[in-house]
Amino acid sequence: MQRANRSFCLRGGRLLLMSQDYSGQTLMWEVTQRTLNGSQFYTYSICNVEEREQDNWLRTTFIQRRPSVSQVFVELQFIVRDCNSFDGASLTCKETFNLYSSDADADVGTTFRKGQFKKVATVAPDEITKKNDMRINTETKVVQSLSQKGFYLAFQDIGACIALLSVRVYYKACPATRKSLASFPETVAGGLNQQLKKVTGKCVDNAYSEDLPHIYCTADGEWVVPVGQCQCVAGFEEVEDTCQAQFIFALITWGYKTYLYDEYLSWVLLPYLRGILPSANTGSPRQWEECQALLQHVLA
């Protein structure tokens, strides 16, 4: 099944901007350079495991929301140190951190009010790093019920030793497609209260339908349950979800555009029809009705 994930473009390529400490300590999130598999990269990290009641925040820049997007996925890559690797700090050390979000109608710059954020999830590692045995975790959380022009994400440290390697924010969509001789636009997948979205298609060129076909877009970004079918108009046939002109119709169209219609009909078209359609010589009403329908379609 085809599906599409669309990532948000972040201004200047930067996601994380501001660190704030509410615990009364001076140590906050900081940018750290690390080496992994021979490559150097930068992370946001904090490791204040010996102090109680830590409350250190890291907030993103303003992320603009596409109007039809009501939920986004947040993919985190991170490292958490084993609390047992710190002598005497096991009672205060934590091995989790929290993800928060806040809807906003405008970019508030560096203004940061903790009370405007609501908790999305507690982030816990599947594997913890012990001494030099580095373990990278990947977790995806869902932020739902977005409704304003944009939003912020924030990460709260409560006393862990963490390195945040990457943050990817994206939404799911059903990609633009063609089915049943109808085209369907890219459609943002539904959120918490809409598991299926009904999408009406548009018949491709030279096709028609009394009742336009429709299809459903799932919350995972997949098309399912197509209903209805467009039909090619007279003189056209279905070729790979398109309607292509049949040879005889193409000949009619070319002749009509090239010659005076009466001369073309008398000297080219009718002799050709009598040569390829036996019923043309016998005057079969059905065959002549089909030919007349083709000509009327050209003249329309």
General shape? elongated
Helical proportion? 10-25%
| Spans of at least 5 consecutive residues with low confidence | 9-14, 276-284
> On the 0-100 scale, what is the average pLDDT?
80
Strand content: 35-45%
The count of β-strands is 23
Please tally the helical runs, counting DSSP H or I stretches of 4 or more residues. Answer: 4
Summed up, the domain count is 3
**What composes the largest sheet?**
7 strands, antiparallel
Structural class: alpha+beta
Distance between the termini: 40 Å
CATH topology of the largest domain: Jelly Rolls
The CATH architecture of the largest domain comes to: Sandwich
Order of helices and strands: EEEEEEEEEEEEEEEEEEEEEEEHHHH
CA radius of gyration is 32 Å
Provide the CATH top-level class of the largest domain.
Mainly Beta
Can you describe what's shown?
- The chain is of the alpha+beta class.
- The chain folds into three domains: 4-172, Sandwich (Jelly Rolls), CATH 2.60.120; 175-243, Immunoglobulin-like; 246-299, no CATH class.
- Helices cover 16% and strands 41% of the residues.
- It has helices at residues 247-258, 261-276, 278-282, 285-299; strands at 4-7, 16-21, 30-36, 39-47, 56-60, 63-64, 72-80, 97-104, 118-123, 137-143, 150-157, 161-174, 177-179, 182-184, 187-188, 196-200, 202-203, 207-208, 214-218, 223-227, 231-232, 236-239, 242-245.
- The strands form six sheets. Strands 1, 3, 4, 7, 10, 12 and 15 form a seven-stranded antiparallel β-sheet that branches. Strands 2, 5, 6, 8, 9 and 11 form a six-stranded antiparallel β-sheet that branches. It has a three-stranded antiparallel β-sheet with strand order 13-14-17, with no helix packed on it.
- The model is unreliable at 9-14 and 276-284 (pLDDT under 50).
- One of its GO terms (biological process) is axon guidance.
- Keywords: Angiogenesis, ATP-binding, Cell adhesion, Cell membrane, Glycoprotein, Kinase, Membrane, Nucleotide-binding, Receptor, Transferase, Transmembrane, Transmembrane helix, Tyrosine-protein kinase, Ubl conjugation.
- Its EC number is 2.7.10.1.
- It is found in: Cell membrane.
- Residues 1-179 form the Eph LBD domain.
